[in-house]
Amino acid sequence: MNVQHRRVMMRTLVWCVFIALVLPLIPYAWSSLENGAVPNPGTQLWRDVRQRDGAIVGSTQVSGVDAGVLISVYGERWRHYRMNELVPYGAYAMGGVLAFIGLYFLVRRRMRIEGGRSGEKLLRFTLFQRWVHWSTAALFLLLALTGLVLLYGRFVLIPVLGPEGFGTTAEVCKWTHNISGPLFIVAITVMFITYLPGNVPAWHDIKWVFKGGGFFGGHASAGRYNAGEKAWFWSTCLLGLLLGISGVVLLDLITVFGQGRDFMEFAHVIHSVISLFLICFSFGHMYLATIGMEGALESMTTGRVDTNWAKAHHDLWYEEEMAKRSNKAQRPGSRGATGQVAEPDAGT
Amino acid sequence: MARMKFLCDAQRCIECNGCVTACKNENEVPWGVNRRRVVTINDGQPGERSMSVACMHCSDAPCAAVCPVDCFYTTDDGVVLHDKDICIGCGYCFYACPFGAPQFPRDGAFGTRGKMDKCTFCAGGPLTDNSAEEYAKYGSNRLAEGKLPLCAEMCATKALLAGDGDVVADIYRERITYRGSATLAWGWGVAYGKQGIRQGGGLEGRSSEKPE
Amino acid sequence: MKLVRKQPSNPAPRAASHAAHTPERTMNRREFLQRSGITVSGVAAVSALPFSMVKKAAATTEPASSGETKQVRTVCTHCSVGCGIYAEVKNGVWTGQEPAFDHPFNRGAHCAKGASVREHGHGERRLKYPTKLVNGEWQRVSWEEAVNEIGDKMLAIREQSGPDSVYWLGSAKHNNEQAYLFRKFAAFWGTNNVDHQARICHSTTVAGVANTWGYGAMTNSYNDIHNSQAMLVIGGNPTEAHPVAMQHLFLAKERNKAPLIVIDPRFTRTAAHADLYMRIRPGTDVPVVWGMLWHIFENGWEDQGFIRQRVYGMDEVRQEVAKWTPDEVERVSGVPEETVKRAAKLMAENRPGTFIWCMGGTQHTIGNNNTRAYCIFQLALGNLGVSGGGTNIFRGHDNVQGATDLGVLSHTLPGYYGLAEGAWKHWAKVWDVDYDWLVSRFDREERAGEYFGEEGSDAPTIDAMTQKGIPVSRWIDGVLEAKDKIAQKDNVRAMVFWGHAPNSQTRGPEMKDAMEKLDLMVIIDPYPTVSAVMSDRKDGVYLLPAATQFETYGSVTASNRSLQWRDKVIDPLFESKPDHNIMYLLAKKFGFSDEFFKNIQVNGDEPLIEDITREFNKGMWTIGYTGQSPERLKEHQQNWHTFDFTTLQARGGPAHGDFYGMPWPCWGTAEMKHPGTPNLYDTSKSVAEGGLTFRARFGVERDGVSLLADGSYGKGSEIKDGYPEFTADVLKNLGWWDDLTDDEKALAEGTNWKTDLSGGIQRVAIKHGCSPFGNAKARCVVWTFPDPVPVHREPLYTSRRDLVEKYPTYEDRKDFYRLPTRYESIQAKDYTNDYPLIMTSGRLVEYEGGGDETRSNPWLAELQQNMFAEINIVDANNAGIKAGDMIWVEGPEGGRIKVMAKVTDEGIAPGVVWLPFHFGGHFQGRDLRDKYPKGSDPYVLGEACNTAFTYGYDSVTAMQETKCSLCRISRA
Predict the structure, then answer these.
(1) Beta strands C896-904; C868-872: pairing state
(2) In this structure, are A15 and A94 located in the same domain?
(3) Do A142 and A285 belong to one domain?
């Protein structure tokens, strides 16, 4: 066959194929041109049901939470949040904070009291205040630990304990968490009332923040509580309350206003974000209160602090206390600001 | 290996609740727990459609993903089951499930959530097949006897299909072909003048108030 | 609680749940597995699976358990579809329920009720022991004590007031043998005051349809709908009332593209699947049907040939239909012309089409007009006697068809023989008792006017034996009406509620009074029912626990006239007894048990069921209940898998050629082996093959016009034209008399096809290709009815006062089924100011009938926990009602009920209120739970809608008017 023939044949073949492919599409195109493509009438209905355009709730004879909802897309969104965001980022956050604290410690070491201990003591926290702090702290730790077990245990503990072993552990943790939660709400409320005096923000707190708590710009003045402590106080109390409330919602003891799953998911997001935030924050608090700073822990264990420590970290409070003492000293037998009779050689 | 699936043909579902009671019957599910339910959209209006829904035994099950104690497992057939002995009743699987399949009897202490219960595709649970303990905890294990879930077997109009995903898909495809919806979607119906009574594909009832 | 089970020897497993749905053109792998796997043991069945789905190697490695699991074949006890069930029983305990994939009616499918029947084996809320009400407290008594006391009381009442003062209210839940026995029992007791649910369900259908063409039953079958090219459902909601029937409707819809037309005041679940939905004002069926027919006549769409050959009186109908112009139709029913025309066109263009109806059409004062209008519509289109056509009447309870056929009715004997002397003589022969003795059992007036009417009048004396008894819809009037206004000796003084609840009848407050006036109430039922709690009686009430149909065996007739055999699943629970046992005990007490069970073997207390079947086989010639012997029935039961899904005919197997259940008429004796008649009036088949002509029931000619078929006859008929019914004389005239055997001749001499106990007349007629009952035209004019041609009349309590003048109701009557009956005196008053809304009722899929049985099943009760009223949002807003509020629904006769409001946009029209009727146990706001015997109260209680429903009775059958009354609503 010569080239000419081949060319013609090729061309014919191509045309045939083209026609064979295009021809069947013509009626379809025709109908689309005519009056728009005939849509599948069910498309809109099922689209609505899948809640892309607007939620449709159906009806059902079965009673139960969300029983009328055919498909809930929020579940997938929540699953993505918990598994792909909360779990990894929470771990990073905690890890990051711990790493930072570790680094800080390696660099800075334990912050010593300026000028060493004076030997004189000043009452900072009463017995009642310490009780409140430690009970709340204990509850917080219990809740944090059990909560972390529930969040991360699956990845970390199952290899160690096995599925049944971990199941039992998780069950125990869940019960502990559920019982401690409401107790924590009570505790944090008491803590709020107890520690509110002195925690009200003041102007000097801003200066303290700008000075980085004394990191740069020289000494930063602080009252009874510095800005950092105030932040911690307000965080734990307000956020902690929210945490508790969201936790009670998650308990689902009473489906309060017929809340559906989307509300529960919302409660869970609040609960998980706040709890991880507070846990990270608590690392800072616990570090500073113990290893990080000399003279800090005894304030909450014995209730008394060294006056030099007080001068260094809470100078305004120290001055107030000294002023009160001297007032009292002028009137023997009178009770000082701390409610105790001023002792001549207090602290020796 | 056959992959087990459910499919509910909304064109045939008549909300008779046969599937719901069949499940109750076969698994002796107590009052208050409903593994399967029928949801009706647009009740009482043209375009009313019903669908029977229970656990859909997802390939990538969200419930299994979020479970804090990892008590879910997928069998070789693709059936998603869980271990009630490990379950702590936290409710996360219920939040994550698009279909609301997990159910919680309120028999925990203080009326809290008890162990999660859900459709097992009539495949029981991790205990010995067809043992009394398995039945008490999880209900019937029909798959081990070579049968299929009773809800689908008893569906009044064969709307609910269950079984090997390929076979179910074949059956449904055959139905669609018979109904002619495929041509409808492509516009053949218009081209060949089959408008009129079949245009709605039966998906919209016509009320006396609506003009044609 | 299920016990450990071994692998049951089950039908082979399937690759997917969906059993073969295709009409049997080819046998696919599934069917092959099913059919071949029936008798194969579990292990082999498992290994035959195409996919290795089973984790364990074989179930026989299971730990062996004590006791085998038995597989029992039975039939659901709920609706008339008659779904097959495999019950698994172990050690006498009902442990499992398996779908019957091979059953020709349902193919394993069930609705919520069918899927939960196993709960009958739990029976936690059952009536457990015979119980007696003493001083307002329920006391347990023994059967002996109960039967003795009841018997003594009844005999005393009989002595004082006559046998008609005891009302025997029977049940649609009896199996055929029990139903037959029940009618016989009432006859031996000596009264026609016997009835059952059919009266308030499809009585107008039976009367209307039978008077049109001979038999009043479903003409085709559920399965035959596969061949329909169009389906019209009026006043019916099969998705809730007959869900498995929807399987068949869907096949027609999908395979044949058959349009589904739904005519209903409410947008039901059936309407949701309809191609055309027509909303009508309740009670306007005739205008709508005549409206459709108007278009059909107008456009010449009727089947002229069919009408000429097989229909009488269509011209009179044309005259009536001409009045129903589109404007008039719209004015009366609210349906615009375009919709009516469309419906008519769809039915006309898609033939054969089937016409389906239920209570929406029957429960009216003009119910018999409605049903006849439906028939005439199908006659006009020529849709009768063809596969895919017909009037497919969906009956209610599982054996309402059987109970109707076997005559548990106040106006007839078994087999629709009527109550004339001839009928009694026939049955006396069958029962093998002296006719005169039977006569002596009944009451009669000594002289005219003694019981009723003027003394010494010229009116004929009342002979209670040949007079229709009081129907169940009116039993309360039998109690409350003044004695001299009732056409019997005395009031009804004792009521026996045998498998029949009271909350399905109207006028609740009056019913309470009636119950309190009675001397004696006996309730024989598996559950106490509302009868036990409705009244404030302190004594004189006995509750006798009856066994369900799963605790006994026998035959049952589905709506399509097929008889099915049930096997016994479990022994009677607690101290319950099957109905026939109880009848034996009572018969013994009354002293006629020997005569009664003359030809029926009694073992202990239990009459042998098979003997009872054989006895009615001996006598039910009119409708052909004669060929279905126990042996043939059992054979059909064992071979479900051999029957074709669409034609219902067995292909191969022991029952080859038979139609499943030998749908009646199954002519002749069992030896003749007639296959049954799947589609009535089908002339394309010979009678021997199941074909049929229209019955020559109304005479040979009228006004000079022949009533016999004109040139239309069955296939193979030797008479090629219409012919009258066959008698011995007719046979002789035709020269066929000698085809009878000598034995047959002996019995057949002087009889006709209905009274010939040999069955020879039928056999010979069929041998020559003829229908034993003749070959006539169907008639559109029933000259014996109040309205010969069906007309529209407004309901008694109508919302359209402007139409009353043109479409008034009937005149009041003095003696209708023995009672004065009001029509116009009620319609005369205008209630619309105080009661502006139309009140109508219907069904729910989870419950059935009076509801105590299904509300005692926790699996069902959980799904419908509240009685409710469905109201339109406009009416709700006008009354200040929100969804979920408790409201009062009050009827014009003072009955009021407190229910929850369900508010809908389009589900129901403004001005109409819809109520489900299955609830009971609350009465006018009062909770009666404490009044139930302890442990027998249903889980869910609610108001009975019929407490608020009103007076109104069909002009032919005394069916109650529960589909259109009036009401008002207010917040509770």
Answers:
(1) parallel
(2) no
(3) yes
Residue A66 lies in a domain: no
| Mutation choice for C interface testing from B9, B11, B16 by most C CBs within 10 A | B16
> Is the per-residue pLDDT at C30 higher than 50?
no
Among B15, B85, B92, the residue with its CB nearest the CB of A167 is B85
Place of tokens 């089908």: C682
The answer to whether residue C47 scores a pLDDT higher than 60 is no
CB within 8 Å: C864 and A63: no
The pTM is what? 0.88
How does pLDDT run across C2-28, given as a tens digit for each residue?
433 333 333 333 444 443 333 334 444
B186 touches chain A (CB under 8 A): yes
Question: Is residue A348 pLDDT above 50, yes or no?
Answer: no
DSSP letters, C751-814, are -BTTT-TT-HHHHHHHHTT--TT-BB-EES--TTSSSSS------SS-S-GGGTTTS--PPPEE
Question: Any chain A CB within 8 A of the CB of B59?
Answer: no
A146 shares a domain with A22: no
Between residues A67 and C146, the one the model is more confident about: C146
Q: Which two tokens stand for residue C626?
A: 């004669």
Structural domain of A283: 74-338
Tell which residue, A192, A198, A187, has the closest CA to residue A131: A187
Report the alpha-carbon distance of residue C751 to residue C737 in Å, rounded: 12
ipTM: 0.88
Over its C-alpha atoms, chain A yields an Rg (Å, rounded) of 33
Domain shared by A320 and A173, yes or no = yes
In whole angstroms, what is the distance from residue B16 CA to residue C366 CA?
31
Domain count, chain A: 2
Binned at pLDDT 50, 70 and 90, residue A338 comes out as low
- Answer yes or no: do A79 and A13 share one domain: no
- Cβ separation of A62 and C846 shorter than 8 Å? no
Judge if A104 and A205 occupy the same domain: yes
Average pLDDT over residues C69-81: 96
A126 touches chain B (CB under 8 A): no
Res. C454: pLDDT tops 70:
yes
Higher pLDDT, C49 or C655: C655
Beta strand pairing status for C230-234 and C353-357? parallel
Q: Look at residue C28 in the predicted model and tell me its pLDDT.
A: 40
A62 and C CB contact within 8 Å: yes
Asked if pLDDT for residue C942 goes beyond 90, the answer is yes
Q: Identify the chains in contact with C, defined as 3+ C-beta pairs within 8 A.
A: A, B
Q: What is the DSSP letter of A270?
A: H
Instruction: Tell me the residue length of chain C.
Output: 972
Which two structure tokens, joined as six digits, stand for C523? 């309730």
pLDDT, residue A335, reads 55
**Does the structure show a pLDDT above 80 at C58?**
no
Tens of pLDDT, residue by residue over C368-398, are 999 999 999 999 999 999 999 999 999 999 9
Query: Which subunits sit against A, judged by 3+ Cβ pairs under 8 A?
Result: B, C
Task: Report helix, strand or coil for A189.
Answer: helix
Is 80 exceeded by the pLDDT of residue A253?
no
C13 in Cβ contact with C45 (< 8 Å) = yes
Tell me, yes or no, whether A67 lies in a domain.
no
All residues of chain C having their beta carbon less than 8 Å from the beta carbon of residue A68 are: none
- Distance CA(A45)–CA(B205), nearest Å, equals 14
A253 touches chain B (CB under 8 A): yes
In a domain? residue A48: no
Are residues A20 and A165 located together in one domain of the fold? Answer: no
Q: Do A30 and A172 fall into the same domain?
A: no
Q: Which two tokens stand for residue C441?
A: 């059992």
CATH number at residue A117: 1.20.950.20
* C839 bridge partner residues: C913, C965
Residue A55 binned pLDDT confidence (cut-offs 50, 70, 90): low
Residue C67 burial (CB < 10 Å; 0-12/13-18/19+)? middle
Contact of B17 with chain C, judged by CB distance below 8 Å, is answered with yes
